[in-house]
Structures are given as C-alpha cells and as structure tokens.
Amino acid sequence: MKNKPLFVFVFCVSFTISYSQQSDSTYINYKNGISKPSLLATHPFGIFFTRIQGNFKTRPNKKTTINLSIESGNVWSAPITAYIPNDEALREQVRQVPWHGTEFAFNVDEIDAKRINLSVDGVLKGFRANLAYKINAQSEFNFGIRTFMLTKGKAPFTLLTGDQFIEGFHDNIAGGNDPFARRLFGLDKAKIFYTDRNNNTLEINNGDFFIGGFETSYYYYPELSINSFKNFYINFGAHLGINLSKYNASLDFGISTNIIKTYALNDLKYFQFGLSIGVIRKNGIEFKTNNIDFGTNKYLGYLENIIEYNFISKRKTTHSFGIDFYLQTSLNKKDEFEYIIPIRNGVSEKAWITGISNLYKNNNYWTFLYSFTRKTVTTTFYLQQDLNVNNNPDIQTGASITFGLK
C-alpha cells in the first residue's frame, strides 16, 4: 500500500493517546458504525450526476439526524481537443498508431469525426446537507442536497487546496517543477469549459454557484443472529438522484450493499471495517434532450473499503482515525480510447493528455479521516488525495458535523 508509512504514523499516534486515557468503563459503548460524511471527490464531471458511497452504519439512528458538510478540491487539466472518428475503417487505422502520434498521422480537418474540447482549472467548493429519518427499527430514509461553487482558491479562504500550496509541494517535496504545466497557463485561475461529442457546451466561471441536485436513499438493516455475538452487520440501499443543473436535468437510480465488522481490542479500543459495493444507472430518465454527455458508460459501479480505529476517552468521547479507499468505474467505455485522436495545446507539453485519457480509466482515491463523537454529535475532518491523477482533485479537504434532532 502506497500510504503505509502514513497509516502506521496515524495508528501509532492514536494508540499512544488512547493508552494514556483512564476510564472506569467495563464495557464498550460502540458508536453507530463508522463515522463518515460524504467523501465523494469534487470531480468536474461527477458533481453533475448522482454517485453512491458506502453507508457504514449498523442500524438506523434513534433520532432524526442532520449532516452538514463543506469540501474544497483543486481540479486541473490542460486544454485539450480530441476527435472520435465515425468511420470504422478509420478507427482501425488509428488503432495501429500510438496515441501520442495520432495527431501527426491524421489530418483532423479532413476526417468525419465528433469532437470533444475540455479544460479544467480552479477550486471547487462543495456544500452538502443530508437528513436521515428513522422509519422503523430496520429501515431509514435519507434526503440530501449537493451544491457547488467554482473559485480561484486564493488564501486565506483556501489553504491546502490552492494552486500556490500545491505547486510549492511539487517543487519542494514531490513531483518536480511544474509537473502538469499548470504555471504555463497561470495560477489562481477559475474556469471549466467542456464541449461534448454532441456539441453541447458547459462553461463555469469564477464565483458561479449551482445546485447539482437532490439525493434520496432508503436503507434496510436486517436483524441477523451474527449482529450481536459476531459484531457483523449488513445493510442494503436503494438510491434515487434528481439532477437539477442546467447542464444535466435527469434521474439516476442505484443500489448498494454495505458490510460492517467490529473487532474489540479491550473495553476502550476497537476497530471497525467496512466494505461497500454498488451500481448507479446514470441518466435513467432525462428531462431534456440536450443534456451534457458526461460519459458513454450508462452504468457506474463502485467499490469502497474503510478501516477505522476508535478509542473512548474518560469523558466518553470516541476518537476515530480512518483510512478510506474509493474506486469507481470509468465514465467512458475503455475501448474508445484506442481510436481517439487527441490534439495537444501548443503551450503544454506535460501531462497534456490526462484530461481526456482519464475519462477512460477507473477512478480512485484515498481519504484520511479524524472524527470525534460525543453523545449524538460527530465532527469529522478529512484529507483526500488522488494518487493516480485521474481528474479528481490533487488535494481535497473537508469537514462535517452530524447531530440528532430533539
């Protein structure tokens, strides 16, 4: 695992702190599953449709619960144009040429092809709210809203996710001098521009605020004999997303399965492990004919796993340290990349292909979380990193608070 040193560090620090705590507790007061707000990356396409993530609760909350969260992610890809030939014979010719040579082997002005234009730059701020309502002892209904704003990401409003910090990190720690040619186009800019293969255009500028949509979920928590004596839980989710932006007005449908296992070290410390898998049908129903095409794959699958270490302090506060890995299938069908003709921007020579090529790759990222839970209130902070640079933010940070209503 690439993050093994950081995982060992987090675990050792948390274990040392927990060992120093004193308590008269003679039993474990488990919190309700793993503390996890929305960890979905602010992907410049993903914000416009519904995506599913793991629900690692062991049961419905006793009270109606509200979660409020804020996130900040730096997104970037150099301007690029890609041509998709319509003729199958020409596609076969393109397949015989390495992708980085196709722009010199074919005259795109003389071929029959669809065209994609894409450039991404800025810091996406996300604001989410979710309400969880207990229906009965075994089921729960969730209703949420997701909203976003594009900013330049300047300090002091943005620190870890600003251009200056990220390029300084590359210069002095890892990546080298301007590894993605961001400086060639200027730092602290904010604009997302995309023309899809159907000639529909998306344009977002600095300060633009929009509602991505509403999300509803129904979770069923079956009562199993292994719940109590094995601390093993499972729940099933049914999902409906309503996309409301002017770029995508549609309904998404999905299902998910979530598994949680708790392992006690003693009466003050315990681990929790979570595994989630599911699929979403993107744009199952469309409300208009000119929705932006955010990918040729209609179904998006995901796999998420998480490990969380918890210790309970003498004040009955549960401190939690977690590492989460999220994997999503590609937005575009992978075989199409074999015959597209990407054209680089004349200024950029580094990583110029990634804005397009990553649409054909599985999407994944790691998240590191810290939460503290006191009674019915949980506060969480997280840091997220896309180690494979697949159009997710270079760095994303977030914070959330979850509390029960009286």
Number of helices: 7
Straight-line distance between termini: 43 Å
The rough form would be described as globular
Helix and strand sequence: HEHHEEHHEEEHEEEEEEHEEE
Task: Please provide the count of β strands.
Answer: 15
Walk me through the structure.
It is built from seven helices and 15 strands. Helix content is about 15%, strand content about 45%. It has about 400 residues and is mostly beta strands. The radius of gyration is 23 Å and the shape is globular. The protein has a twelve-stranded antiparallel beta barrel with strand order 1-2-3-6-7-8-9-10-11-13-14-15. The model is unreliable at about 1-25 (pLDDT under 50). The two termini are about 45 Å apart.
Name some characteristics of this structure.
mainly beta, globular
